[in-house]
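The protein record filed here:
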Amino acid sequence: MSSEQHQTSSVPVEPTVLDRFSFRILQFIHIEGASGFLLMFMTLGALFLANSMWSDLYFRVLKTPFVVGVPNLFVIEKPLLLWVNDGLMAIFFFVVGLELKREAWIGELSGLHKALLPGMAALGGMIVPVLFFWLINRQHPENLAGWGIPMATDIAFAVGVITLLRKRVPLGLVVFLTALAVVDDLGAILVIALFYTKQIHSTMLLLAGVFLVALAIYGRVGGRSLIVYMILGGFTWLAVLQSGIHATVAGVAVAWTIPVDTRVDLRRFSVWMRQQLDRFDSDLFELSNPFRPGEKQRHALHAMNHAVYLADSPLRRLEDALHPWVAFLIMPLFALANAGIPVDKNLVHSLTSPLALGILAGLLLGKPIGIVLFTWLAIRLRFGSVPSGVSLRHLLGTGILAGMGFTMSIFIATLSFDASAPHAQWLGIKLASPMIALAGQKGQLEVAKMAILVSSTLAGVLGYFTLRFLPLTGQS
């Protein structure tokens, strides 16, 4: 090898935009994939506890009331289960809101051309499952409150299955599935906000709006303190909790007030940092102790640390900080608290009921049909093109995996049929009472949860084998 060749090969290569993007996606896959496996473990644990000698203790703990507040000022008393569903899940929805804003501003949904294809796919994945559910339950009005259950996708479980396939799945397919799931989450959030509400208390709703405006103004004038966002966000959650709208919607609303921009001109950032490094290096070799920085070094370090802090947006810092907590604590706790259902012969027989069949058909048939059909339609209308290396069979496998509704589906089922949850409504008109039980069978909530668990399991297995036996990327 010539010296010129040697010098060329030894020069470090600057990572391309695609390299950095791929790293971000792979990091996301790692977190969501591991979270999916943990969710599976906690789901099995909940089922075991609900059907073991400790079942009474399990349900008693979930019903244990916890009181939070200030005496003579405000007090909130809820059972542990509702603290998980109304409190911890608000943080989950906050992170979902951060992901939505990031994708809409600088991600796969930024710009109409980028958003149209996954948006159309997600729309089909929401409309067609609801149609399946309605067709099966149209003669059973007591079940219609659960129409939103089969429209959801659990990205953690879906990505968890994809991680098992590794190199057999093109990266573009994971990006497409992620963008689709983000739009799907937006649809579920809108459904919860519009159709699963109690009577609206205008005063508390107005107060929540005041806090949101304060958050928006604080971010607009350059505020970057995460403590301020947490305090005002907490007050917003309390106001929404008392307003009649489900408290988790507050998480999304607060997330959209978090700035996605930095306070640093990134084009001049590296030049300024080099100047600070030069300042740090000045008189460096005159230090009496090389492990004790002098005043110049301390000032340079402080300035660089502050600049790095300002060069990253609050949205990114919050998302990076909270995403692991949501993936490895909040979602597993939600699964542990909500997936525990006593399984017996009556519950198994209830899988043939219209409610269960509507959920099964919606998730297992409606999801893949809707996603593939609307994606094909979007391509025919020139709304976009599928990612490189992705075939129609890849889209079919992705559509099947999207039928793993789990977290969001169980959440909507709880809102639909749990007596302690808000009643399902259509613009203020109650659709059905959650107190009605299936005649001679298990209660609606248990049947819905069982159908969600069965359909999510089948969707995962079928989606895995559909993608597993496709030709490797790049092969015919």
About this structure: Strands lie at 65-70, 74-79, 425-426, 429-430. The longest strand covers residues 65-70.
